[in-house]
Amino acid sequence: MAIERTLSIIKPDATKRNLTGKIIAKFEEAGLRVIAQKRIHLTKAQAGTFYVVHKERPFYDELCEFMASEPVVVQVLEGEGAISKNREVMGATNPADAAEGTVRAEFAESVGENSVHGSDAPETAAEEISYFFSGLELVG
Ligand code: RTP
Ligand code: MG
């Protein structure tokens, strides 16, 4: 499988509970390498642009409020099949459905406040990475 890059966000519920290191450890144990990382506090508008694909969904406003409620840690992860591998490590969107040992099974609080985001395809990964990072900030 090819080496890929994916955009990861450690969400406000997790940064608030000081879980950043435990979550990064799971990514690293799975063979994903952090090649860029920063802690930022999104505005609601910035969160809205990031999640614009969901703007017609009933949870959109709540999601944007949540993403702007506390700082987040945004990262680029690199590795073999990084996009699907990261989503495997994350677990299902709803922690009630997430497999044992995944980030969401262990740490997520609810379907909305679910600790992590990960890109879902090569095109969205490229778009999402460039939303947060310049090429110079990706140190593979
Ligand atoms: P993400 O984009 O954050 O990696 O999560 P995902 O692919 O597993 O889930 P997606 O369907 O893309 O939904 C994006 C985020 O919206 C929130 N959500 N809330 N209240 C709800 O029913 C609901 N459904 C989704 C979650 O924070 C989800 O991760
Ligand atoms: Mg998604």
Topology:
Elements: E1 3-10, H1 12-16, H2 20-29, E2 33-40, H3 44-50, H4 60-67, E3 72-80, H5 82-90, H6 103-107, E4 116-118, H7 122-132
Antiparallel strand pairs: 1-3, 1-4, 2-3
Helix pairs in contact: 3-4
This protein binds ribavirin triphosphate (RTP) and magnesium ion (MG).
Describe the structure.
The chain is an alpha+beta fold. The chain has seven helices and four strands; from the N terminus they run βααβααβααβα. It has a four-stranded antiparallel sheet. α3 crosses α4. The relative contact order is 0.26. Ribavirin triphosphate is lined by residues 54, 59, 63, 93, 111-112, 114, 117-118, 120.
CATH topology: Alpha-Beta Plaits
Q: Report the end-to-end length measured between terminal Cα atoms.
A: 18 Å
Give the structural class. Answer: alpha+beta
Instruction: Specify the biggest β-sheet.
Output: 4 strands, antiparallel
**Cα shape:** globular
- What is the CATH architecture annotation? 2-Layer Sandwich
- Report the average pLDDT across residues: 98
Query: CATH H-level name... which superfamily?
Result: Nucleoside diphosphate kinase-like domain
Number of strands: 4
List low-pLDDT spans: none
Instruction: Classify the beta-strand content into a percent band.
Output: 15-25%
Into how many domains do the coordinates divide? 1
Subcellular location: Cytoplasm
GO molecular function, one term: ATP binding
Protein name: Nucleoside diphosphate kinase
Enzyme class: transferase
List its salient traits.
single chain; Alpha-Beta Plaits; alpha+beta; binds ribavirin triphosphate; four-stranded antiparallel sheet; 140 residues; binds magnesium ion
